[in-house]
């Protein structure tokens, strides 16, 4: 199945999930080891990436605080907690979602200064972080979709010589990211338990 946006429906996690996905995405599991709770894809021309992450449900946080919790957790892993900002948090209306099982879905747009592969402070890149969080308490799961969208690449970064121009016309957009997120379907809920 394909559509005008140069993509098709792709199975994730062995077919337990599916969603629309652009054809210019490389499956990182074909290049490097990816944890079992993740699916990671990289844009063929830019330094953008999209990750699906199945996480333990965080019942101590609710509403917008839940997605901010996960965002700050990622910032900490990226050594960017001091340089992380949240620009937008909004709830995604359930009628826009293919996943009907979630109690809530949230979108976050933030920005972090991230050093790829922990290359050091002088190699930090300015990266927009787009996230969608699906709350699935009945499966004790928080399902995250994360897009890393580099805005400015440090000359000291390993990405600087890759001809990855942040203004490349084939870049994945926020609109495409939301299309991916809203098209996500649960095919087999045994994935969560």
From TrEMBL:
Keywords: Protein transport, Transport
Molecular function via GO: guanyl-nucleotide exchange factor activity; small GTPase binding; sodium channel regulator activity; transmembrane transporter binding
Metal-binding as UniProt keyword: no
GO BP, one annotated term: regulation of membrane potential
Signal peptide location: none
A cellular component term, taken from the record's GO annotations: nucleus
Similarity-based family: Belongs to the MOG1 family.
The name this protein goes by in its record: Ran guanine nucleotide release factor
Organism annotation: Clytia hemisphaerica
